[in-house]
Amino acid sequence: MSDESTTPHPPWLELALSELRQQRDALQAEISELTGRRDQLQQELGGSFAGQSDAIARRVKGFQDYLVGALQDLAVAAEQMELVVQPLVVQPSPLDLTASQATGGTAEPSAPVAAAGLFSNDEALIRERLAAFQGQPDFYADPWKLRRSLEPGGAALLDDWFLSQGGRGAQPSSGSRNRNALTAAAAIAILGELYGDRFQTLVLAGMPERLGEWRRGLQDCLGLTREDFGPSSGIVLFERADALIERADRLEERGELPFIVVDAAEPAVEIPILQFPLWLAFAGTPTELALEDDLL
Which residue range forms the structural domain that includes residue 50? Predict the structure, then answer.
């Protein structure tokens, strides 16, 4: 595996870093200009009449207050830059692992990773359900229970997502929106056992046709009806990330848990989504993304 310092940043991270650097440069330029104004004011103060001293002192005080605010803004921008860069060293990207396997690369066996995050105490239940999902499908299961068989690849993906990533991370797409919907449905079934009605699934896919595929796939896999998709139901579909983020914020304010699913055709995961405790982003394969481009 290549050194972390040479690992290319994802596009969304490059954009965030670029914006922060622009803010920093603008603040530094403004501070330089204000410093020049301060020196000019001090010269005026030295050569002014006594009757003008109070007015100039007020101007100097106003400049000092403004300069302090500018420095505080620069400090906040620097802290945000550090927070954005930090996740790069947490663990390897699933896409890097997939690429290594595709080129015939072999990885040395590693020790089992302990369950992380929200699911550190639920490892036995999660693995039991993932094993059961790979058996015969239960076409007559109750609504919100998985009615289809989960492929081994989907089970391995969810094992890693639940127990290694702690329910927060990107995973490689299966190459089909229907199979991704099946994987997400299995996650929803498990989350339903763990959290009951205290969570809501929010799906982001930027086109109505894609959202239609997600609705049909989840409806089939979980035995749902159209009434189960809507603002007051268990699953809400979104074309825009800002609307999804607003909904997730409202859920958290009510003490509920949003589970965010990002379609493989989305070009990047919006940074505000990363703050939520449960999100699963499918990273599209080159073939899958090329096919989506052809359909546009």
Answer: 9-88
